[in-house]
Design goal:
The complex is a heterodimer of chains A (about 425) and B (about 160).
Chain A (H helix, E strand, L loop, with lengths): L10 E2 L18 E5 L3 E2 L10 H15 L3 E3 L22 H6 L4 E10 L2 E10 L4 E10 L4 H17 L8 E8 L2 E8 L6 E2 L7 E6 L5 E6 L6 E6 L5 E5 L5 E6 L5 E6 L6 E6 L5 E3 L7 E6 L5 E6 L6 E6 L6 E2 L7 E6 L5 E8 L2 E8 L6 E2 L6 E7 L5 E7 L4 E7 L6 E6 L3 E6 L6
Parallel strand pairs in A: 2-4, 2-5, 3-5
Antiparallel strand pairs in A: 1-7, 5-6, 6-7, 8-9, 8-31, 9-10, 11-12, 12-13, 13-14, 15-16, 16-17, 17-18, 19-20, 20-21, 21-22, 23-24, 24-25, 25-26, 27-28, 28-29, 29-30
Chain B lengths: L8 H24 L26 E2 L9 H16 L4 E7 L6 H21 L7 E7 L10 H7 L1 E7 L1
């Protein structure tokens, strides 16, 4: 209902499909951006004088969350905007912005009539003295956080060609003594909710590609079974309940299949389940433990963990189970693969110097990168839909955190910190606005 | 399991008594190891009068391994003898891991430990239909400590006697 108020009035995008920032290049550095307080040009400006500042601060908050911007301090700004002057938004002396090191500049006007607020937002390329984006947002005061999120998302889309991860959630397992439940939390760390109450052990939550279903393993009935929960209705369906282990894997990109680890034939091997017909197909036939399968974004390959070489390592196979090849060779304990939605990299956790750290490697086993280095156990990486960020759990003797970092390991921020261990975070797809 | 439904009430009471007994033995073991860790609820623990003692001893494993160690073979032989003497009882074999490593992989490793113990019992003549396996991974440690002693205790197969 709030979202209907956020329909943009005008969309002028001078940038066409050009991508201004290639944040995937190895030489990527954070981009300096200046965000001015929005100029209140209402007739009765006194009433809403803070709104322009609050809105700019919220946009900064969300843009800083992407890890790709260096938000310049407004105290360094040389050019002042004439308060209340609607034309000032486009009157820019670019050399003043070049001088303070800004590559990009955001300015906006606010007009308020009764409860209706319109934010007119502009984005400029400072070095080219060029306007990249001009867009109006119609909203009410109570939804200014949401509108700031949308503005940040549009700025990111204009500059990088991708809207970012603002409209996503992270599901995770919160453990309280011997009971664990699935919780979800927004990308900005707000709005944490407990969504299961099994009074039991729950693990391995996995989102369906459209975000409407969440599969997980629960010991609700006394032993591990796989459940699929409809996130809209809250109805849970038990989908596998074989003897022994029923451990949740991941959904196929088309949402029709769910990968699993089952031990019904005496060996922990990988299967997939057709969600509609509940038909099973066995994919691995090895004597080893095969576990934690994750689909490639194009659906043609599956990465998983196997101890067939004597220790747990990451392997990739074709989606029909053929052509298995090992991709990790460093260290003797590599687990929890997560396939990047942007293609060829796989994040995982590996044991090094007695701690677990996050690594990524391409799907052929090349270009290995260690992403975390701190004195904690960093586990269970999961990629954001943009493929530019990774959420993971970070635990030490003194603290339990969920953290988000850029895909290159930089710009870590704490998503969630609590007394109880928070583990197995999984990033949702984007939710439609 | 299905034929058990037809058991008489008397048999049921005896079974419950045995179940309690195994529960007591389990608690004793925990206390003697100097911990206060609460055990995971098992399907067996209920109140009843104690009967003849039928207990099965845990076996331990090496880190990231599921093979039955030489020291465990002796225990498994004694456990199997106990099961062969008391054919009325079925067991649930619980596989457990220490806290190190990945929870998901450990869930599979715990299952493999339980499966290996089951196979070992089958080779010693115990009927496969009397045994079920369950993995608790690293989620139900016997000793909550984070040291080699605790880890060694926690890497185990535990045998729960039912009916």
């Amino acid at each position: 209902m709030i979202f209907s108020l956020l329909i943009p009035l005008i969309l002028q995008n001078n940038a066409n499909a050009k991508i201004y920032i290639d944040i995937d290049s190895p030489s990527f550095q954070q981009f300096p951006i200046a965000i001015c307080d929005f100029n209140n040009i209402s007739n009765d400006a006194a009433q809403t004088s803070d709104l322009g500042i609050v809105l700019a601060d919220e946009i900064k908050f969300y843009l800083s969350m992407t890890g790709i911007f260096n938000i310049l301090n407004k105290k360094s700004f040389l050019e002042k905007i004439e308060a209340g002057n609607a034309e000032a938004i486009e009157k820019i002396y670019f050399p003043d912005w070049v001088l303070i090191g800004a590559d990009y500049l955001v300015r906006g006007n606010i007009t308020q009539e009764g409860k209706q607020i319109i934010a007119d937002c502009r984005l400029f390329d400072v070095t080219r003295s060029e306007r990249l984006m001009s867009k109006k947002y119609n909203f009410i005061d109570s939804s200014k956080k949401e509108v700031a999120k949308n503005i940040a998302s549009d700025i990111l889309l204009t500059l990088t060609g991708d809207e970012g991860d603002f409209h996503t959630k992270i599901a995770f397992v919160s453990k309280k003594r011997s009971v664990s439940d699935v919780h979800i939390i927004d990308y900005d760390g707000s709005n944490q909710k407990k969504i299961t109450s099994h009074q039991s052990l729950i693990m391995s939550p996995r989102w369906s590609p459209n975000g409407k279903l969440l599969a997980f393993t629960s010991f609700k009935d006394g032993s591990p079974k796989v459940f699929i929960r409809n996130m809209e209705t809250g109805i849970e369906r038990k989908v596998t309940f074989f003897d022994g282990l029923n451990l949740c894997g991941s959904f196929s990109p088309d949402g029709k299949k769910l990968l699993l680890t089952l031990s019904k034939e005496g060996l922990e091997n990988i299967y997939y389940l057709d969600i509609e017909t509940l038909k099973l197909k066995r994919l691995t036939h090895n004597y080893s433990i095969d576990v934690s399968p994750t689909w490639s974004p194009d659906g043609t390959k599956i990465a998983f963990v196997s101890n067939r070489s004597g220790s747990p390592q990451i392997y990739v196979m074709d989606a029909n189970g053929n052509n298995v090849r090992r991709i990790t060779f460093e260290g003797n304990y590599n687990t929890s693969p997560s396939w990047s939605p942007r293609g060829n990299r796989i994040a995982y956790e590996g044991s090094i110097y007695g701690k677990y750290q996050i690594f990524s490697v391409d799907h052929e086993g090349n270009n290995l990168l260690q992403l975390t280095f701190d004195n904690a156990d960093n586990e269970s990486p999961s990629w954001s839909p943009s493929g530019r960020q990774i959420v993971y759990s970070s635990r030490s003797a003194t603290r339990n955190r969920l953290c988000i970092m850029n895909a290159n390991g930089l710009n870590m921020r704490i998503l969630h910190e609590a007394m109880n261990p928070s583990v197995m975070p999984v990033w949702s797809p984007r939710f439609k606005q | 399991m299905k034929e058990k439904i037809t058991l008489t009430l008397i048999l049921f009471v005896i079974a419950l008594g045995l179940a309690l007994f195994s529960g007591c033995a389990e608690k004793k073991a925990v206390v003697s190891e100097g911990t206060t860790q609460e055990q995971a609820p098992t399907p067996a623990a209920k109140e009843a009068a104690p009967q003849e003692e039928v207990t099965l001893q845990d076996i331990n494993f090496d880190f990231d391994k599921s093979n039955i160690r030489p020291d465990a073979r002796v225990i498994m032989k004694a456990n199997a003898d106990m099961l062969l003497k008391n054919k009325n009882y079925n067991i649930i074999i619980e596989g457990h891991c220490d806290e190190r490593g990945t929870a998901e992989y450990n869930m599979a490793l715990g299952e493999r430990r339980a499966q290996e113990a089951k196979k070992y019992f089958i080779n010693l003549g115990v009927d496969a239909s009397r045994m079920k396996t369950i993995s608790y991974g690293e989620e139900r440690p016997l000793d909550p400590g984070s040291n080699e002693d605790a880890w060694a205790k926690n890497r185990r197969a535990h045998f729960v006697i039912i009916e």
